[in-house]
Amino acid sequence: MEIKEAIQVLKDHNVWRRYDGEIGEEPKMTNPKRLGIAIDKVISEFENLFISGVSNCGGGIPYDSLSDSFKKSIDSIEDNLNK
Length: 83
Fold this sequence. Notes:
Elements: H1 3-18, H2 32-51, H3 68-81
Helix pairs in contact: 1-2
């Protein structure tokens, strides 16, 4: 699975997960195996970014411009990689 497809799978899954009945037809649940593959792909891509030094201020997007929740996610991933 390519990263763009994995991201779309995660987006589609969140639409299904957050469905509250207010919009028309209920979205389809994501196949659990496909969801797992998408999660693995996105995690792998994040790990590769950190291993190659693209984290915090080392990447194309300044760390300070990221949302607080995204910064916490980055920090958590880095902590787990450094264990």
